[in-house]
């Protein structure tokens, strides 16, 4: 297309995908494909990126063919520059309709399965608690009951994660953004994690500048940070160190969770936020784990308009950083964040 943009050329694959011929599409704006169902926030981000001469990529496109049928597309747009000025844009679409349908089916199955498992699991946990309270057990029976109770707790946590993921992926997870005090969330997380850290004789250091506020969903942010903190404790050996800090940079708040634990092998780091990923260097040492925790963190962070990044070195530890938009107001007044 031209920078305006107006279509000047399409290849035969584009004709097959959209139903438009070159003669019909030439001179048209690519918006002839818009269905109105693509997230509206995507377009300003796209233009802001490509007008600066940078490549743009998204898999959130829902387009409409000439005959009115819709399809999901992965889109890449490449600016063609000359003398630091955009001369043309080259757009590449990949039809991912079948992939999206498959992911939707998996999400629906996961939701249905989670709901079906929750009821009998609740009954099992109730029965175990009743035996613990009423039964007279010998040492071996008590150990078996303790292990069974721990297994049901892990299963309950897995079901809870599956339900949250299915709600996020189906667009049914509500987001309620308010002006929140980050230090209060830090204090809550510290109280929540202190027991687990003490059991491994780990030192946890929480740093929070006074009166740091952010406009976000408090419960979702707490869930994100709780997962990262719990991972840091879990994957750091006895006598390890955990660091938790927040720092405002411009209009962004960066919250970092650092540990000196097992770390993630370099060759596996590109998979960290994928479903069911577990680093090979911890599978034998810590066999319990679903591989869904970091995927949930990634999905929840994206849901509140933030981002999550990490740096890690095997046997030296990891740092996960969550960046979220912040506000400079507290009860409507200017807050300098000093």
Structure description:
Strands 5-7-8-10-9 form a 5-stranded mixed sheet, covered by helices on one side. With 338 residues, it is α+β, with helices and mostly antiparallel strands. The protein is globular, with a radius of gyration of 25 Å. Helix content is 41%, strand content 25%. The longest helix is centred in the middle third of the chain and has 38 residues, at 97-134. Mean pLDDT is 87; it is low at 328-338.
Name its key features.
338 residues; alpha+beta; 5-stranded mixed sheet; 3-stranded antiparallel sheet; globular
Mean pLDDT over all positions: 87
Stretches where pLDDT falls below 50 for ≥5 residues?
A: 328-338
Shape: globular
Radius of gyration: 25 Å
Distance between the termini: 48 Å
Task: Summarize the helices and strands and which ones pair or pack.
Layout: H1 12-18, H2 22-25, H3 42-50, E1 56-64, E2 70-82, E3 85-95, H4 97-134, H5 139-169, E4 178-181, H6 182-199, E5 203-207, E6 213-216, H7 218-234, E7 241-249, E8 252-259, H8 280-283, H9 293-303, E9 307-313, E10 317-325, E11 329-330, E12 333-334
Summarize the structure.
The protein is an alpha+beta fold and 338 residues long. The chain has helices spanning 12-18, 22-25, 42-50, 97-134, 139-169, 182-199, 218-234, 280-283, 293-303, and strands at 56-64, 70-82, 85-95, 178-181, 203-207, 213-216, 241-249, 252-259, 307-313, 317-325, 329-330, 333-334.
């Amino acid at each position: 297309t031209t920078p305006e943009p107006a279509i000047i050329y399409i290849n035969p694959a584009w004709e097959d995908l959209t139903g438009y011929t070159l003669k019909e599409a030439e001179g048209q704006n690519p918006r002839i494909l818009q269905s109105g169902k693509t997230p509206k926030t995507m377009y300003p981000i796209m233009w802001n990126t490509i007008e600066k001469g940078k490549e743009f990529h998204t898999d959130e496109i829902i387009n409409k063919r000439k005959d009115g049928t819709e399809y999901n597309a992965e889109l890449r747009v490449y600016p063609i520059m000359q003398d630091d000025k955009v001369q043309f844009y080259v757009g590449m679409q990949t039809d991912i309709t079948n992939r999206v349908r498959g992911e939707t089916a998996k999400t629906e199955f996961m939701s249905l399965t989670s709901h079906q498992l929750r009821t009998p699991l609740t009954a099992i946990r109730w029965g175990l608690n009743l035996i613990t309270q009423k039964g007279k057990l010998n040492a071996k029976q008590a150990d078996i009951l303790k292990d069974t109770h721990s297994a049901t707790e892990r299963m309950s946590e897995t079901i809870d994660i599956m339900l949250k993921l299915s709600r996020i992926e189906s667009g049914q997870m509500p987001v309620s953004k308010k002006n929140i005090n980050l230090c209060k969330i830090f204090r809550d997380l510290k109280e929540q994690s202190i027991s687990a850290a003490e059991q491994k004789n780990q030192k946890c250091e929480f740093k929070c500048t006074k009166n740091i506020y952010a406009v976000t969903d408090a419960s979702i942010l707490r869930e994100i940070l709780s997962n990262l903190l719990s991972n840091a404790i879990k994957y750091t050996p006895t006598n390890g160190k955990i660091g938790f800090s927040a720092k405002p940079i411009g209009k962004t708040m960066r919250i970092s969770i650092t540990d000196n634990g097992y770390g993630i092998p370099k060759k596996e780091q590109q998979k960290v936020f994928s479903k069911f990923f577990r680093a090979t260097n911890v599978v034998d040492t810590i066999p319990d784990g679903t591989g869904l925790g970091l995927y949930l963190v990634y999905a929840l962070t994206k849901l509140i308009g933030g981002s999550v990044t990490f740096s890690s070195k095997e046997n030296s530890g990891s740092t996960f950083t969550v960046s979220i938009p912040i506000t400079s107001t507290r009860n409507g007044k200017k807050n300098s964040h000093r």
